[in-house]
Design brief:
The chain contains six helices and eight strands. The longest helix has 13 residues. InterPro entries: Oocyte-zygote_transition_reg (IPR052782), Prot-tyrosine_phosphatase-like (IPR029021), PTP_cat (IPR000242).
Length: 212
C-alpha cells in the first residue's frame, strides 16, 4: 500500500462505535474499513481477548451435529466442524464418515481448499484417505511434527516411509527455506506425489493445529 493510498484510507469519514452487546464481528457492511480499523486499534489486548472468547463461547447457527456425535475425533471444543461443507471420508472400520475437515472456497473457485485439524492417532489413515480421495497436491502444516503437539503423520527423514493402513508415505527430500518453513516432497502409495510445507515459526497455539 503506497503512502497516498494509506492517507486516503485513514481519511475516510465515519466512526464505528459498538453498541451494548455488540462485538467487532457485528460491524455492518455500511461501516467504513477505516472506522472499523480505528476501533480495533483503540482496543486493549484484554478487550480484544474478551471479544474473542465471548464470541467463540456462543453457539453457532450452523449445524455441527455430526462432529458433536464424535467428540473424541475433535481436538478442541471451540473449533467446530460445520455439517454443510464437511469433507466426508469413510473411516476404515466403515462405521462413519466424519473427519474434522471442511471445504473452503478460493478466489472464484468453489471448494478450492480444505481446512483440517492435524490427524489424531485414530484418524491418521482417514487423513491420508482424504488426501488421496480429494487429489490433494499441497499440504501446509502450521505445527511441528514432534510427537508432543502432534503425532507424526508423515516421515520426516529422506528415504524413510510410514504406513497407515492401505497408505504408504515416502519421504523424497526436504529443503529449509529462509529458516521459516520446510518444503518436503512426499509420495503416497506409489501413485500420488505431493508437496508438504511446514511453517516452523508459527505459533502453535494460534494455529489451532490446522492444516489447509
Amino acid at each position: 500500500m503506497t503512502a497516498p493510498q494509506l492517507y486516503l484510507l485513514l481519511r475516510c469519514s465515519g466512526r464505528f462505535v459498538l453498541k451494548p452487546g455488540q462485538f467487532l464481528h457485528d460491524a455492518e457492511s455500511a461501516e467504513s474499513l477505516a472506522s472499523f480499523t480505528r476501533r480495533t486499534c483503540s482496543m486493549s489486548v484484554f478487550s480484544l481477548f474478551f471479544d474473542y472468547t465471548t464470541v467463540i463461547a456462543k453457539d453457532t447457527k450452523e449445524n455441527c451435529s455430526v462432529g458433536e456425535s464424535h467428540p473424541m475425533l475433535n481436538r478442541f471444543k471451540d473449533v467446530r466442524c460445520f455439517d454443510k461443507n464437511r469433507v466426508k471420508v469413510k473411516h476404515p472400520d466403515g462405521t462413519h464418515d466424519f473427519l474434522h475437515a471442511n471445504y473452503v472456497d478460493g478466489f472464484r473457485e468453489r471448494n478450492k481448499f480444505i481446512l483440517t485439524q492435524a490427524p489424531l492417532e485414530q484418524t491418521n489413515e482417514q487423513f491420508w484417505a482424504m488426501i488421496f480421495q480429494e487429489n490433494v497436491v499441497i499440504i501446509v502444516a502450521l505445527i511441528a511434527l514432534d510427537d508432543k503437539q502432534c503425532r507424526r503423520y508423515m516421515p520426516i527423514k529422506n528415504g524413510t516411509t510410514v504406513n497407515f493402513g492401505a497408505y504408504t508415505i515416502e519421504h523424497h527430500g526436504t529443503q529449509q527455506i529462509r529458516d521459516t518453513y520446510d518444503a518436503t516432497i512426499l509420495k503416497v502409495t506409489n501413485s500420488c506425489a505431493l508437496f508438504g510445507w511446514r511453517w516452523s515459526k508459527w505459533n502453535a497455539s494460534s494455529a489451532r493445529y490446522l492444516l489447509p
